[in-house]
Amino acid sequence: MRQMVRRSRAALAAVAFSLAACNPPASGGASGTKAPTTPAVPTPAVTNPAAPTASGEAALFTPTAKAPTTAELADFAASNNAFALGLYAKVRSQQGNLAMSPFSISSALMLALAGARGETADQMRHVLHLPSTGDRPFEIAGSLIASYGDPANAVTLRVANRLFGEKSYAFEAPYLAKVRADFGAPLEPLDFKSNPEESRGRINAWVSHETEGRNKDLIPPGAVGPMTRLVLTNAIYFLGDWAIPFEKSATHDAPFSVTKDQQKPVPTMYGHAGFRFAGASGAKLLEMPYKNGALAMTLVLPDAVDGLDALEAGLTPAVLDQWTKALTSTEVKVALPKFEINPPGPMAIGKLLAGMGMPDAFDAAKADFTAIANPATPADRLSLDSVFHKAFVRVDEKGTEAAAATAVVMRAAGARLEPKVVEFRADHPFLFLLRDTRSGAILFMGRVNDPSSRA
């Protein structure tokens, strides 16, 4: 069987959610203005002085909860994937290549959910497809994050969470203890009131460090300001070799049909090995594992050159489950273009999330995050202000490089197997999913419309 060359590659993602006080700035925009002259909220006794001031804490915590069962992992993955496909259905309308990390986004959202109450919490749980009550999903997520960081793994997969809070704002000690215990998320105090841009720079520097420099400027200028009280941030980094790498000498240019009427020559990798494969109605699926065997990239190629839009439109959790269950080991001839997706800026997905069924979290008059902070003045209560996400993915002969990050800013207030050697020739637009094959959770997903373009 033809061997392919081995070398590490990575996958990265980041998300940031900001929460801000309901009371708007006295004048001007989101940054660079003076904070209103209201009495300062006392600094809490709990500010996590032991939290590292430099990054590098990814997956270095030890969860205190009991390890999840196989059934619990499957249920959690099903929730993650239902959220992933629901969000993908919202973002897929954008043009060109696309990459995102639903696991990063849901992890950051769960940091906020841990402090939500009432209808706000109910709506967030509905969007995340989590049970209506109970803390077990937080514990399961934390266990997964910690297991990914095990240095004994044959690939590198790190997930880091951090809270950046206004230094003068009083956060609830039980909330800080919970997110640190379940998610390994310490609180780092910043001065949003007086130095919002300096604070934004610190958060972006942390994200860049945790994603090996692949995700820079996650939070754009002006996105945090004097009324920002908390930014919940997640970063995920993956670096892994293919279990069966491609032979670099076999790579050569081949035509790729970006549309029915337009072709481009793109560097295309070739291999012939045993993979898990399925032929579904209107599509072919190929699962390419990484060295540890617990992570794999699943490629979904529509039969029709212009069939990706219809395939995306019909992508549901039930369809995905049917596809993955149909995968069976066989000999496959593979032709796969090298590609890199590195968008110039982050996606702002706050409105999309609100439209998915959690509007109260973004409504200053309705949001209930009183478990995060419960100030006496209603104008100082928290609501979600913005959500930014950025992902980077690169695939070549050696493996996969991908990174993503998410920031949540809060303000106060029918398949069959071919019985012979089959061919998987990705010479027109296709989907990709980087999955944890043990639980089934989607860590990264996206599409390649044009391998010659990075955006």
- According to DSSP, the number of beta strands is 17
Largest sheet: 9 strands, mixed
Query: Structural class given helices, strands, pairing?
Result: alpha+beta
Question: What is the global morphology?
Answer: globular
The fraction of residues assigned to DSSP E strands is 25-35%
CATH topology: Antithrombin, Chain I, domain 2
For the record, the count of structural domains works out to: 1
- Alpha-carbon distance between the two ends: 35 Å
> What is the level-2 CATH architecture name?
2-Layer Sandwich
Mean pLDDT rating: 86
Low-confidence stretches: 1-10, 24-59, 414-419
> What is the number of helices?
9
CATH superfamily: Antithrombin, subunit I, domain 2
Helix content: 10-25%
Brief account:
By secondary structure, this protein is α+β, with helices and mostly antiparallel strands. The protein has 9 helices and 17 strands.
What does this structure look like?
Helices cover 23% and strands 32% of the residues. It is α+β, with helices and mostly antiparallel strands. It has a single domain, classed as Antithrombin, subunit I, domain 2 (Antithrombin, Chain I, domain 2), CATH 3.30.497. The strands form two sheets. Strands 2, 6, 7, 8, 9, 10, 15, 16 and 17 form a nine-stranded mixed β-sheet that branches. Strands 1, 3, 4, 5, 11, 12, 13 and 14 form an eight-stranded mixed β-sheet that branches. Strand 7 and strand 8 form a beta hairpin. The longest helix has 22 residues.
Secondary-structure blueprint:
Elements lengths: L9 E12 L48 H22 L6 E3 L1 H12 L4 H11 L7 H13 L7 E11 L6 H11 L3 E4 L5 H15 L17 E14 L10 E6 L5 E18 L2 E7 L5 E8 L5 H6 L3 H10 L1 E10 L1 E3 L5 E2 L1 H6 L26 E14 L3 E14 L9 E4 L4 E7 L5 E7 L7
